[in-house]
Amino acid sequence: MNCTQDWPEPIVRVQSLSNSGLKSIPDRYIKPPTQRPLKNSNNSPNKMNIPLIDLGGLFADDSTLRATTLSQISDACREWGFFQVVNHGVRPELMDCARKVWRQFFHQPMEVKQAYANSPKTYEGYGSRLGIKSGAILDWSDYYYLHYLPGCLKDHKKWPAHPASLREVIDEYSKQVVELCGTLMEALSINVGLEKDYLQSAFGGDDIGACLRVNFYPKCPQPDLTLGLSSHSDPGGLTLLLPDEHVSGLQVRKDEDWITVKPASHAFIVNIGDQIQVLTNAIYKSVEHRVIVNSDQERVSLAFFYNPKSDLRIQPSKELVTPEKPALYPSMTFDQYRLYIRMKGPQGKSQVESLKSP
Ligand SMILES: O=C(O)CCC(=O)C(=O)O
User: Could you mention a single GO BP entry for this protein (predicted)?
Assistant: First the structure.
């Protein structure tokens, strides 16, 4: 498999469609009935939410508080694969600023954004589809994708030059988020009984990969027929999502239900990706999620992906493989692994499930 070809059809910017004032969406955004959002998805305030964890406990001198926080993280990883964290060490003003610069980017004239139009080869730049399957039903969103790590892939020229502060803000934001990911990787390692630096080393130590996808979901005149982002699990390691401060939209699979996440102020939403499912031999599972859109408000989110070094083989940790629970997955590099989503687009959990030994 390779992604060397171009997009199979001319790219249409969803934001332009939305701004054109159309009353019904084009057929290529209409999902089959089984994939459409449910009218009764739990938007009411008393319904379930993903766990909220105060990470301050991890940095406390009090060992009981540290143990309690680790145990909350452990429960959240096992039961949900998703949780929110507050007191995480990333400055709230920086989070606001990161959202602001990206909102400004998407509100610039189309020709400014088009200068960064992406291709399926690396996906870096301004995009409007995932996957290169001809005739695919598309999602109601545009995005911007960029590399932060390894340093050799980071290229400021591929990051937007306007607004003028964007590069500096995103550099600082990414630095702080990477630090937070390191802290979470330690907590996850300890929680499955491994040395605290186990997962980080398995990811390549200092040579890990990290990239950012900023999602822009324009207003949609028929939100019941489409999705902002189809159901998928994240192919990488950990994802730290900075959601829109005003508009919800992320839905997480919980058994047969879709739970609409209600973000806490200045929280990050953390989720386990497929590579951690593989390394922990499915003690932790990556969980399907998707995004719904609405007719009144646009939505912006920043998904920061913390990934293994791309040419390192990832396989179930030997310490977590036993005669009763043999290795569930073959070893594979992340470069090989992520080709699936890059070719096929978001497809639920089909990839990691299909790799599982019977
Ligand atoms: O926009 C969101 O809330 C989720 C985005 C997401 O799942 C992704 O970018 O992979």
Answer: regulation of defense response to fungus
Å from CA of 302 to ligand 1 middle: 7
3-state secondary structure 156-185: HHHCCCCCCCHHHHHHHHHHHHHHHHHHHH
The whole-number average pLDDT for the span 325-334 is 95
The whole-model pTM stands at 0.96
Which residue's CA is the closest to the ligand 1 atom numbered 1? Answer: 301
Give CA–CA dist 111/114, Å, rounded: 5
Residue with CA nearest ligand 1 atom 9: 303
From CA 259, how far away is CA 48, in angstroms rounded? 7
Provide the residue ranges of all domains of the chain, joining segments of one domain with +. 14-353
CA distance 62 to 59: 9
Dig out the tokens for 315 from the structure.
């396989």
pLDDT band at 339 (very low <50, low <70, confident <90, very high): confident
Q: Report the separation in Å between the CA atom of 289 and the middle of ligand 1, taken as the mean of its atom positions.
A: 8
Q: What's residue 1's pLDDT?
A: 44
Nearest Cα residue to atom 6 of ligand 1 = 303
- Which tokens belong to 76? 């959240």
The pLDDT mean for the chain works out to 95
Q: Write down the H helix ranges in the chain.
A: 14-19, 63-79, 92-106, 110-114, 166-191, 198-202, 274-279, 334-344, 350-355
Q: Could you say which architecture CATH assigns to the domain 14-353? A: Sandwich (2.60)
Q: HSE on the CB side for 307, CA within 13 Å?
A: 24
Q: Please tell me the residue having the least CA distance from ligand 1 atom 8.
A: 303
